[in-house]
């Protein structure tokens, strides 16, 4: 009976690179959102589904990091993140383990003052600090906002992630599930494949290039016997000089990105993949409404 189970939407918010995607992947138990050490890795709102047959269903929205935007793509990302706050049943706010509360955190606290949903604070990356320090972090954040719960955790190590799920279910409303039990994401396979390629580029390339790249899947077709899927994809960059770096000497960098991406895509599709990558220059695409829309970042969808 639906009355006995809970179901609802939970958004993960926080500044760039606090571990939102890592936590979501950890809870779901498989890789849906891409991760890297670069800020602004997540650009769109990604929906994943966690189903507990006894308790109900949690639909997670992983959002881009909330930051000071420098171009139209940045504005789009911040709008995506902040617009989800009004539509959810529970908010998970991830922060770094520190006693310093910067302007970014204070801005998020101001945004949260406008919402009705309970806010659970997750102090992430506690595996990087001493346990005795955590109480001081909790004390500082407790004065910033009236949180429903404060949970120290490590998404990377899986520490206290069960406690996070328990806390979420405590605040979810009763009701029927939104998705089948087997559903783990609303992301199309093409989109996940494009994001996997972008992740490998983020991890491999020089510091200044990754923010200026996008990936589009031109074709994605399984062969007749179903054993191999042929994928052609294009990495978009903003400068001619970047194109040379992405391709690398003798094509070495592009080959490295492609082989690394292919392995993850094969795991996702559960078949062999033949992946061909191209590189194109689209100058200033992050400040072009038309180009952003072409690459999957449409402001009208926020």
What does this structure look like?
The chain has 302 residues and is of the alpha/beta class. The chain has helices at residues 20-28, 72-83, 103-112, 131-142, 161-171, 189-204, 240-247, 252-269, 289-294, and strands spanning 6-13, 46-52, 56-62, 90-95, 119-123, 149-152, 214-222, 228-237, 272-281. It has a six-stranded mixed β-sheet with strand order 2-3-1-4-5-6, with helices on both faces. Strands 7-8-9 form a three-stranded mixed β-sheet. Strand 5, helix 4 and strand 6 form a beta-alpha-beta unit. Helix 6 packs antiparallel against helix 8. Residues 38-42 have low confidence and may be disordered.
Model regions low in confidence, pLDDT < 50 over at least 5 residues: 38-42
Structural classification? alpha/beta
Mean pLDDT: 85
Oligomer: single chain
Helix content: 25-40%
Strand content: 15-25%
Number of strands: 9
Rg over alpha carbons: 20 Å
Element pattern in H and E? EHEEHEHEHEHHEEHHEH
Distance between the termini: 34 Å
Count of helices? 9
Order of the strands making up the biggest sheet = 2-3-1-4-5-6
Task: Give a quick account of the main beta sheet: strands, pairing sense, barrel closure.
Answer: 6 strands, mixed
Shape: globular
How are the elements arranged and paired?
Layout: E1 6-13, H1 20-28, E2 46-52, E3 56-62, H2 72-83, E4 90-95, H3 103-112, E5 119-123, H4 131-142, E6 149-152, H5 161-171, H6 189-204, E7 214-222, E8 228-237, H7 240-247, H8 252-269, E9 272-281, H9 289-294
Parallel strand pairs: 1-3, 1-4, 4-5, 5-6, 8-9
Antiparallel strand pairs: 2-3, 7-8
């Amino acid at each position: 009976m639906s009355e006995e189970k809970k179901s609802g939407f939970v958004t993960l918010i926080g500044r760039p690179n606090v571990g939102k995607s890592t936590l979501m992947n950890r809870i779901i138990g498989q890789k849906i959102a891409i991760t890297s050490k670069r800020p602004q890795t997540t650009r769109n709102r990604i929906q994943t589904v966690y189903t507990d047959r006894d308790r109900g269903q949690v639909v997670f929205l992983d959002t881009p990091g909330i930051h000071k935007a420098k171009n139209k793509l940045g504005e789009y990302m911040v709008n995506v993140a902040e617009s989800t706050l009004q539509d959810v049943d529970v908010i998970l706010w991830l922060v770094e383990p520190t006693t310093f509360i910067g302007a970014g955190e204070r801005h998020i606290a101001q945004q949260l003052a406008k919402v009705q949903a309970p806010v659970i604070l997750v102090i992430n990356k506690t595996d990087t600090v001493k346990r005795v320090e955590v109480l001081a972090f909790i004390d500082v954040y407790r004065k910033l906002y009236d949180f429903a719960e404060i949970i120290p955790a490590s998404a990377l190590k899986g520490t206290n992630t069960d406690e996070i799920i328990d806390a979420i279910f405590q605040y979810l409303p009763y009701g029927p599930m939104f998705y089948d039990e087997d559903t783990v994401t609303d992301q199309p396979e093409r989109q996940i494949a494009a994001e996997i390629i972008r992740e490998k580029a983020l991890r491999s390339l020089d510091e200044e290039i990754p923010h200026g790249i996008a990936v589009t899947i031109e074709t994605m077709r399984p062969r007749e016997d179903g054993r191999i899927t042929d994928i052609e994809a294009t990495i978009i960059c903003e400068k001619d000089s970047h194109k040379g770096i992405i391709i690398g000497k003798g094509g070495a960098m592009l080959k490295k990105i492609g082989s690394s991406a292919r392995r993850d895509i094969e795991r996702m599709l559960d078949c062999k993949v033949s992946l061909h990558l191209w590189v194109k220059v689209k100058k200033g695409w992050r400040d072009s409404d038309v180009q952003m829309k072409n690459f999957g970042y449409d402001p009208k969808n926020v």
